[in-house]
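Title: Prediction job returns without error message
Component: structure pipeline
Severity: low
Priority: P3
Assignee: unassigned

Description:
Job completed but the reporter wants confirmation the result is attached to the right record. Sequence as submitted:
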Amino acid sequence: MMTATRVAVSQRFRGVLLAATVAVAAVFLAEHYGAPAMLFALLLGIAFNFLATHESCRSGIEFSAKTLLRLGVALLGIRLSFGDIVALGLGPALSVAGLVALTLLVGVLLARLAGKSSALGMLTGGAVGICGASAALAIAAVLPKTRISERDTLFTVVGVTTLSTVAMVLYPLLTPLLGFDEVATGLLIGATIHDVAQVVGAGYSVSEQAGDVATLVKLQRVALLPVVLFALILIGRREGGGGVGLPWFLVAFVALVALNSTGVVPAWLQAALAEASRWLLVVAIAALGVKTSLTAMFEVGPRHAFVIVGSTLVLLLAGIGVVALLPV
């Protein structure tokens, strides 16, 4: 028993060590060449994709890409206060809810146009509109198994992860062409990129202010996931029971925002936690890169890809329109 436990811990350690090594290299390159550390981490990580399924690294890579990512996002809360949230205003919050609802509707419509089921449209629309792969898995769990196959779920996860990775690189390049400042850039990135990891990567590749705003807006989208799941349950699209709750990292993020708003957190502790968050996120992005297979990116079915890409483009265009109209 102890031997099996030691082997499991050793395997997890090796995967985390791989992601951490890539992260250190990425930070070194970023500091010497002036490019975003998270982008370097992603690209360097992809080069080590051959280790993603290796028995000695797999569990550690998964742990880094999921648990360390969520911990890093949670610790970002120490950088924000309720004053920052109020500064964004009611407009962005309502806009986020509207964009999520629009994306769900568009997903269903595009799925029907592609000859697919409405359930698939909700799956892809929810993944695009809320929080990428995590939303896809959660929504698939509450949809009838007769309407959604494991293949559909897998394609959605691969598709939104692929598009989210592309968006992480391209959206920060797009916003200057639109004349957006750092706050508007953060709003657009947070409101339109699918996964939390890529939102964080894209936002902080622009600036700290853009990253803070993007993270806050993204977490507002994540907070809508339980609402969507509960709605699906109420309309009878779930087989069996089960509860719905907020992700723990969202709860921790809000708790740290509340703590930071009191003014009792010493500056040195705030700085230390913020630095820890930065490193955790770079390690997580590196692990995400290791998990990214260039081959898998091209294996999504064409009709399913049409729904995912179409929903993504509609969300982007609607997001640009909303951000352009908001008084930021």
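Comment from assignee: result matches the submitted record. The chain has a mean pLDDT of 83.
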